[in-house]
Every structure is written in structure tokens, then in C-alpha cells.
Amino acid sequence: MPSSSRGGFGPPSGEPPSLAGSLLGLVGHTLWFAVRMTVSLWVIAIPVLVVAYLYFVRRHFLSWQLALVSLIPAIWLVAAWRTGHLRGNWRAHSLRRLNASLGPAVDAKILPRHHLCTRRGEVTGIEIWSHTGWSHDQTIASVDKILAAYRLPTDVERTVTAHAHGHITVRLDALVPTPPAFEATVDQLRTWVSASTGLTLGLSAKGPVMWDPRKVPHLLVVGVTGSGKSVTGYSLVAQAILAEYQVVAVDPKRLDLAWLTAYGVQPAITPEQSAAAFAFTEAEMERRLDECKAAGVQNVRDLPTPPAPVLVVVEEAAELLETGNKPTKDSPGLPSWLSRADCLERITSLARLGRAADIHLLLLAQRPDASILTGQLRSQLSARVVVQDAGGPEAMRMVGLSADEAETFAASGPRPGRFVATFGSGWTVGQAPYVSMETLKSLR
């Protein structure tokens, strides 16, 4: 196979490196890592030693001295950020998550097997192992596809070095920073739907984070205004439409789910309309359960011709779940209160019995508390997602996030769409995609 005259990652001859060269490189990387760790530890330890010396030896310690020595680690952190080390670690972490999400495309032979070479979170090149039967030209042409899949510029100059058995290395002549967040296109949503039986919430360090309604039937998504909670819900609803779910929408804000009208779904906006929508869904659940009883099966998916699953999405669920004290008999607010109370009763019924009927709830709420999540409803919502910020300690406690888990989540950095999720056991930190309104309106 041809080899570039400009060199690359491997030896110019295309032969594998020698054992001595590999050992020398390993020793060099190990020494460099040891030097960095030693410097980092001493930068933190020196202020502590200075304070201990002033206090225990000199017996003279002033507040300005503490402030002065405290500047040393602060200066070190600023220097580490400016030189790209801290940013590089975070970018590399995002890159690993994105790389895991491309697994279905690699398995489908849309993209070849590959590995991105990075330095402080910036892409320096690509190692590619082409599939059996691919020509060299096909492998070279796949470089643009790989860069586009990672949302990196495809016009960067590159140097290609060919090796044996379809293995090539591509050196990018300019460092390309990895994107901190990502947007899901229609093709990406379709790939997620075709690759699994569930709905993809987003990406984590270990790969896609999945919500499988067949295993965990109902999901609660919590987040304050501007956190990305609604967009996270949009992504799940869009995947449900592509997976041919029947969608029932309740939107007290009247605007968030209006895009569903393009797919024949008219969201309920008033308490009275919401109560009617839940009554219709509950009647469908009873019909499906009766059909299961007549057929002698325990789940509608076991029927000879199973019906399509149903996703009931409720935006700003607190508007319906928080009923408050009952108004007086002659109060003008009594009809709305009765409708909200009816909604709460029917939502609780769907949460208890909907799994066998393949009917699933997706509730989006801000700052949940005991007045919103009653004990019976909360026990059914074992799948919970906190997007960026749940809205305070009480909300964190209601969703079951401990102080240590909340601290770990906060350390991952505030960003719209950043979430921590549980599906019954353990919490996973990840990033939900941004889905534009143009994408939501062009699913079909």
C-alpha cells in the first residue's frame, strides 16, 4: 500500500516499532507522568508546610500570611487552566463518551474501526483499521466521515501513512479542539433507536445512557429553568416517535410541546383537557389489561399482535400534581382543583398498572417536593434524572440523590443538558444532546 512521504505516527517504512523503541517510549511517558504528579503534589504541600512552620516553629501566625500562601495553589490552578491541562482532561473525557456512542455505526460498517489520538483534549490524528474488503481509497475517504461524526472540521490538512492489513494513521497538521457539547441530528436519533430497544438519554464516560421502558416503565426528569430539562425530554419524545410509540402530551405551559402537532398529537393545555387525556389513556390501559386477561398472558407484548407502546409526556407536571387545599364549594377555582385532583389520581393509577399495558410516563418537573411527589407516585418513579440542578436540598432529597452523589455531580461542571440519572440502582453522570426545533419538526 502507498505510504506518505511526509511521515506520520509510525516509522516511515511502515514497519512496527522495535521492542527497544517501545520500551523507551514507555519509560519516557512514565517519567513525564511522575514529574507532573510530583510538581502538582508539592504545589499543594508547600503552603501547608509554610503554615505549619509559622504556627508551630515560629509561633507567629497572621491572617495575611495565610492569604499569601493560599495564593500559591490558586496561581497553580490558573496556570494549569491557561496551559490547557485542566481543559484537556475534561475534553478528553467528553471525547471518550462520544467515541463510545459511535459503536453502532462501527458495527454497521458505516465507519471503520478507529482511535483518535489526542493531546490535552485536542485531536492530533486518527488511527484506522478498515473492515475486510475495504480498499485503500475507501479507508482514506472515511477520514472525513470520522471527523464529521465527531463534529470536527473536515478541511484540516492531514498526512497519511499506510501500514499493513488496512491499518493507516492520519496526522492532522493542525490541532483540532474537541467540542464540549453535542447536538443530535435526525440521523443520530434514528441510529440510537435502531441500536437498542430503549430510548437514549445521553452519553456518559462508559457510553450511551439508556432508559428502557420495558424494564423501568416510568421516568421523572427534574431541572430548574434553563437547565436543559425540556430539551432532554424533547430528545426522548422524538426517539419515541421514531420508534412508533403512541404519544399523549400534556403541556400546561402551552408552548413546550406544540411541535408535536406536526405528528398528529394535540397537547392538552388546561386542567380539564388534561383530565380528559388521562381518562382516555386509563381507559386504553383497562382495555389492554382485559385483552391480556382474555388471552391468558401477563403483558400486552406477549399478545399475538401486540399494540404499539404508549408514552405519556407531562411538561411542568407540578401544575397538575400539586393540588393544595380544596377550595370552598362556591369558589370559582373549584372546577380546576377537581380536574387537577382527577389528574393526580389517574397518573398514580397509570404509574401502578401501566407497565403490563406497555403504557409509560415521562414527567418533567421543577423543584419536586412532598406536595408534588406523593409516597405512592414516588415509589413508582424509580427512574429519575436530575438535569444540572434539581432546585435545592429538598428537591435533591426527593429524587434520592445523596449529599456525596450531589457533590460528585456538581464537580462535573454546570452545563445545560448535564445530568445524573438512576434507573433503580446507582447514579450515572452524563450529557444529554441538544435537539433543535428544526430537527424535531423533520423526524419524518
Strand content: 15-25%
Count of distinct strands: 13
Q: What is the correct CATH architecture of the largest domain?
A: 3-Layer(aba) Sandwich
Any idea of the CATH class of the largest domain? Alpha Beta
CA radius of gyration is 28 Å
Q: How are the strands of the largest sheet arranged?
A: 6-5-13-12-11-7-10-9-8
Tell me the number of helical segments per DSSP (H or I, 4 or more residues long).
14
Estimate nothing, just give the exact number of structural domains: 3
Mean pLDDT: 78
- End-to-end distance: 43 Å
Q: Mind summarizing the main beta sheet?
A: 9 strands, mixed
Relative helix content: 40-55%
Low-confidence stretches: 1-17
- CATH topology term of the largest domain: Rossmann fold
User: Structural class, from secondary structure content?
Assistant: alpha/beta
Write down the overall geometry: flat
What would CATH call the homologous superfamily of the largest domain? P-loop containing nucleotide triphosphate hydrolases
Order of helices and strands: HHHHEEHEEHEEEHEHEHHEHEHHEEH
